[in-house]
Protein: tripeptidyl-peptidase II
Amino acid sequence: MVFATLLWGSLFSLTSAARSVPRISHFSRSTVPQGFASLGAAPVDQVINLRFALSSKDAPGLQRALLDVSTPSSPNYGNHLSKDEVNAYLAPSDEALGAVQSWLSSNNVTAAVTGGAGDWLSATVPISKANALLGADYQTFQHINSGKSYARTLTYSLPSEIAVHIADVHPSSTFNNPLSIGPILSSPEPDRKGKGNSTGSNVASCATSVTPTCLQTLYGIPTTPATQSSNSIAVSGFIEQFAQKVDLASFLSSFRKDVDSSTTFALQTLDGGENTQSAAAAGIEANLDIQYTVGIATNVPVVFVSVGENNQDGDLGGFLDIMNFLSSEDNIPQVLTTSYGENESDLSPSLATKLCTAIASLGARGTSVLFASGDGGVEGGQAQQCSTFQVAFPAGCPFLTAVGSVHGQAPEIASDFSSGGFSNVFGIADYQADAVAVYLKALGSTNKGLFNARYRRPISEPPMNVLNGRSSGRGYPDVSAQGENVQIVSGGQTGGVDGTSCSSPIFASVIGLINDELIAAGKSPLGFLNPFLYSNAAALNDVSAGSNPGCGTDGFPAKAGWDPVTGLGTPNFNALRIAVGL
Structure:
């Protein structure tokens, strides 16, 4: 799974020049995050692109509306919100916008309003101005393993009368690991996962290698072409990962001989993104995601959304930008699959919450947002040293569907790298509270103290909250799919790759095909999936073998029902069709 640190845009840090103005700390880190080292004060004349998030008028109202249109038992199920209705929830109050803009102006800073709902302001200032506005101490921090450097501050503060209107400031105290961990072409030596060189043939069994044909057999996925042009699947692309049309043609010729090999995908770009076409520019992740959407969701239109690195703060950002980009469109995709992420601890809770709310806004409009759960087992998005279990992000956001990995067949077994656990930022979602409670009871004292769980259901809490010791954390993943020795073509070479980044586009393709049938029947697309999935768990293939070790432990064991390794299980296409009323 590609787990790059995708920091998004830059927030703007503001601070009154008058030191006598009462200030409050907005976020603080006591130590430099693992893997980083300070190189000293950032040059005062270095320019930094900052963006700050304004508090929305009614984010909790948006969350309630999302659940209302996404819960099958609700009379409003499927009545997705319009763009204007979503923006009305997300927009800042006139008071907040006026107060922050006035404050900026008094400090000789001009900020531009960004984001479809106008809930972001951005500006470019020198480090000296950022330090003064934020009461900060920006330093140059180097990520040791990659050598990349960033201007960050361990702490910042805001005037008390302004802090109430600002959700977060970025870049400030959020750090990101710029290394991407991508699926690697399988080696010739066979191992327990059945890896080996692919012959490029149509393999009907998933026991040795995974192809579209084996997935169609295993999950009952039809080969019948989709018919609805209004239906689409969007694939996120980051960190200069480029999807190759010639590789897709070769993939289809080898693994979907019944599909015209000239079938291709559309392209959208933002933040200076592109999609360079050459063998040298081939991206394993991008090719994987495109080949297992185009190659599984037969005839469903697929768009590759390439996010460049011009995303406000000069690093690998883009998560927030792509959400805002898609949210600004009148016609949004019915499915979005993303195979990138980071660790929850790398972000401030307020920034994580702001992104999660942006994801909720897409779900409220009818998009099923899926993210790969991560490849570090209980060590989070990627393997790392740890003494307590780590959480992947955005997989821990309760308003998306996180997809874990399995391998084998009859029965399927959890992949040991499949990230899963319980969020330290987001409270348990009501739609999964009962399923999680059953798992925690069966788990008993195993791993006690290593993760966020308090063995009881939250009472009278909002769907999403920053945890304060009252409840268990949101459990993830929600579902899973095959993710080992998945055959792709990249740079003209065929081979197998591993990762939950294989699993997310596979599950997304299943949803894309079901949406096609729903739209053809005059019904709404599924939109935010989780309330439907947790109330129809029998429509998934339960996985109860395997675990996700890490942090010096065996991790979480897969068990009957939901578990934090494979979620509710893998797709059963026909059962899902019946569950949605087709």
About this structure: DSSP finds 14 helices and 25 strands in the chain. The CA atoms of residues 233 and 335 lie 5 Å apart.
